[in-house]
Design brief:
7-stranded mixed sheet; Gliding_Motility_GTPase
Length: 201
């Protein structure tokens, strides 16, 4: 690329951008997931946990966690020259939920990360995307030492609709995260096709 034009003399391609949210409870691995796949150094808005936040930041199950996202995480993946994926990690604590409406504007879909040790922490995210008809995939982040449960048991515990994909993943592993994101895109495309078919009939 030379002075905004390609070397072949063609104007630069204006890429189509897709936006995916990464949501879930406090300490579930959202920041880790974004960092695992982002081609740029992720934008992070983490602050140290303090004594003042102890009454509202429940660290049971994640006692080693020392920071928390206070605005969002941001990462980017270039899929092709003309296709770029933006990842936005949402803050997990209830006091930051007012930001979700802004972050979800124009989103193709979402990943709801779940931790089987604290499954109730992702209920709010599941409810949020269901109410707004934003396609989402539940990714069960497989933490070391956490119990493994059958997919059907997790699905029942979260009261998920049958068509909501649920996958096991490792938020630290690039290939695992890529599979989750592919699942979000495929699910969003399937949902869009169903809506178009319903309108046509």
């Amino acid at each position: 690329m030379i002075f905004g034009r390609s070397e072949r003399g063609k104007p630069p391609v204006e890429p189509v951008t897709l936006k995916i949210l990464v949501a879930g409870g406090f300490g579930v691995g959202k920041t880790t997931l974004v960092g695992a796949v982002s081609e740029i150094r992720p934008l992070r808005t983490e602050e140290l946990l303090t004594e003042a936040g102890r009454p509202v930041d429940d660290t049971s199950g994640v006692e080693a966690k020392s920071t928390t996202t206070v605005a969002m995480d941001f990462g980017r993946i270039t899929l092709r020259e003309d296709l770029v994926l933006y990842l936005f990690g949402t803050p997990g604590q209830e006091r930051f939920w007012f930001m979700w409406d802004e972050l979800s504007e124009g989103a193709l879909g979402a990943v709801v990360l779940a931790d089987t040790r604290r499954l109730e922490d992702c209920f709010a995210a599941v409810d949020y995307f269901e109410r707004r008809a934003i396609p989402f995939v539940v990714g069960v982040n497989c933490f070391e030492g956490s119990a493994r449960y059958p997919e059907d048991a997790v699905r029942r515990a979260l009261d998920l609709d049958d068509d909501v994909p649920l996958v096991l993943c490792d938020a630290r592993d690039r290939e695992s995260v890529k599979e989750v994101l592919v699942g979000v895109v495929q699910h969003a495309m399937t949902q869009a096709a169903r809506r178009r078919s319903a309108v046509a009939t």
